[in-house]
Amino acid sequence: ESLQHRVFQPGEVHTFALWGPSRLVNVITWQVVGLPLWSDFSLDVMNGPPPMVLSMFLLGPPIVKANGVEDTRHLPARTTTVVKVCGWPSLRPLAPQLLRKLREGTSRSAAGHREAAFEANSAGRPWTPPPPSGAACFG
């Protein structure tokens, strides 16, 4: 089934996997490992310090500039965040302030999204997530 026509329903469970890079990233030790021709190195080089944030978003149509040229870059104005997940290794816990900020954003964002999805589903219409509202992580 094409994802373009798929309507996600509350209560469904979906699994998404990143098979390509997963063999090279050890999140537990926060290392990139086994990269041909490279020594193992810290994920800090590519990601910065924890957390690692993975986002899935919908990409809207290109923006047409005044001169008629289409701008196909992944600009914030063209994206709608569907899910944003944060992860970090237990060996490198987050600073209490950052963890508190993530937890506050999670409860606000997730509750609002769940309510909107439930209302849309109850009315028999598909739910379209709102545009991203900051850097909070939610699931």
Question: How does this model look, in words?
Answer:
The chain is 25% helix and 19% strand. By secondary structure, it is α+β, with helices and mostly antiparallel strands. The two termini are 24 Å apart. Mean pLDDT is 77; it is low at 131-139.
Question: What's the arrangement of secondary structure elements?
Answer:
Layout lengths: L18 H4 L2 E2 L4 E2 L8 E2 L1 H4 L4 E8 L3 E2 L5 E2 L7 E9 L8 H27 L17
Antiparallel strand pairs: 1-2, 2-3, 4-7, 5-6
Describe this structure in a few short sentences.
25% of the residues lie in helices and 19% in strands.
Which labels suit this protein?
139 residues, alpha+beta, three-stranded antiparallel beta sheet, two-stranded antiparallel ribbon, 7 strands, 19% strand, extended, disordered C terminus
Mean pLDDT: 77
Q: Can you count the beta strands? A: 7
Count of DSSP H/I helices: 3
**Rg (CA only):** 18 Å
Helicity level: 25-40%
Strand order of the largest sheet: 1-2-3
Shape: extended
Structural class: alpha+beta
Low-confidence spans: 131-139
Oligomer classification: single chain
